[in-house]
Specification:
Family: Belongs to the zinc-containing alcohol dehydrogenase family.
Protein name: NAD(P)-dependent alcohol dehydrogenase
Distance between the termini: 10 Å
Mean pLDDT: 97
Cofactor: Zn(2+)
Bound molecules: nicotinamide-adenine-dinucleotide, zinc ion
Organism: Brevibacterium salitolerans
InterPro entries: ADH-like_C (IPR013149), ADH-like_N (IPR013154), ADH_Zn_CS (IPR002328), ER (IPR020843), GroES-like_sf (IPR011032), NAD(P)-bd_dom_sf (IPR036291), Zn_alcohol_dh (IPR050129)
Number of strands: 18
Order of helices and strands: EEEHEEEEEEEHHHEHEHEHEHEEHEHE
CATH superfamily of the largest domain: Medium-chain alcohol dehydrogenases, catalytic domain
CATH architecture of the largest domain: Alpha-Beta Complex
Length: 345
């Protein structure tokens, strides 16, 4: 079968012919409906090296945002119907640590000794015609379209988890949420904030087209450049935002996040660009909390799937054939996509 393979650090992924996998004990074979291309994949093949955790060493098939239909049940798997559509929860924890037993496999305490970090990160993912996944990682989609659903596994799960972290400051009337970076994750963050909170969503991106799409979803957009932080503060009645979500994480965006944060706010850094900011008593809003977050729990993904089925999350998707998959990554890197790239094998 055809697959997009990450073969070596600092090397662009390649389209290859690989053997169709066979489900092991407790696994199912999925026929892939769609697999999303996440910006984190770019960091993995461009920036990571052998110093990074042993459990994401190449080579493996990319694709940690996958949806598909059950083709075959592995030994010991019961209660799942062939042909039914499912989303794949990516993280593969040890299953027995303090985090895993709370459904937080994304924060597994045994990451260093687990054979892989996640499906599509250290073990074969969904950018192929078929993928084997543990049955316990499946989230049912019912009758909903599995192609547009693929990005939910990360581009919706991660912002959903981030938004839930900021529930307290966003509860109540007249609240403001700031979303920085309106790509795959950011566009869905706007939708989740709209569905779950009454907050006014303020949004920014360097691309006017991305801001137009957020504006069409009800966000108040503020372009970058001089006076941006002042403009955001003005929009929030001078108080600053109650929650800030940074889907870039570069030095200028974490600085913007800090300067836009109001008293008692929550600032969540989601983007992995590694920018730093000074955070001390002086110049930081009182009782504001700065946190990072990584992916989400499988329980969160069930909530996300329910929101998708209810029409509250509608991912913008650009589909690519398997042959076009390298082009999808090229356009993702060049910032030329206007929706999440989903490879449809
Ligand atoms: P994307 O490429 O689809 O979107 C990034 C957006 O940010 C683009 O619209 C781009 O124009 C915008 N942008 C870039 N620089 C900017 C700046 N200085 N100011 C404002 N906007 C700017 O990427 P994505 O797939 O949505 O991922 C976003 C980030 O989140 C990446 O860093 C990715 O690695 C990370 N990520 C983190 C997690 C996690 O669990 N923490 C999960 C998935 C992705
Ligand atoms: Zn664990």
């Amino acid at each position: 079968m055809r697959a997009v393979v990450f073969e070596q650090f600092h090397q662009f992924p390649a389209l290859k012919d690989v053997e169709r996998p066979t489900p092991g004990s407790g696994e199912v074979l999925l026929k892939v409906a769609g697999a999303g291309a996440c910006h984190s994949d770019v960091s993995v093949y461009r920036e990571f090296d052998a110093e990074h955790p042993g459990n994401i060493q190449p080579s493996f098939v990319l694709g940690h945002e996958t949806a598909g239909w059950i083709e075959e049940l592995g030994p010991g798997v019961t209660g799942l119907e062939k042909g039914s559509a499912h989303l794949v929860y990516g993280p593969t924890g040890c299953g027995h640590c303090r985090q895993c037993v709370q459904s937080r496999e994304n924060y597994c305490e045994n990451t260093a000794t687990n054979p892989a970090l996640a499906i599509g990160l250290g073990r074969d993912g969904g950018m192929a015609e078929y993928v084997c996944v543990p049955a316990r990682n499946l989230v049912p989609l019912g009758e909903a379209d599995p192609v547009a659903a693929a990005p939910l596994a990360d581009a919706a799960l991660t912002p959903y988890h981030a938004v839930r972290l900021a529930e307290r400051p966003l509860a109540g009337g007249g609240r403001y949420a700031l979303v920085i970076g309106l790509g795959g994750l950011g566009q869905i963050a706007v939708q989740i904030l709209t569905a779950l909170t009454g907050a006014t969503v303020v949004a920014t991106d360097t691309k006017p087209e991305a801001m137009e799409r957020a504006a069409a979803r009800g966000a108040v957009t503020v372009p970058g450049g001089e006076g941006q932080a002042e403009r955001i503060r003005e929009l929030t009645g001078g108080r600053g935002a109650d929650a800030v979500f940074d889907f870039v994480g570069a030095a200028p965006t974490v600085e913007l996040a800090k300067s836009s944060a109001g008293v008692g706010s929550t600032v969540v850094i989601v983007g992995i660009a590694g920018g730093t900011v000074e955070w001390n008593f002086y110049g930081t809003a009182y009782e504001s909390a700065l946190m990072s977050t990584y992916w989400g729990s499988i329980a969160d993904l069930h909530d996300v799937a329910a929101m998708y089925r209810a029409g509250q999350i509608v991912p913008d998707v650009e589909t690519f054939t398997m042959d076009e998959a390298p082009e999808a990554y090229r356009r993702l890197e060049a910032g030329e996509l206007s929706g999440r790239a989903v490879v449809v094998p």
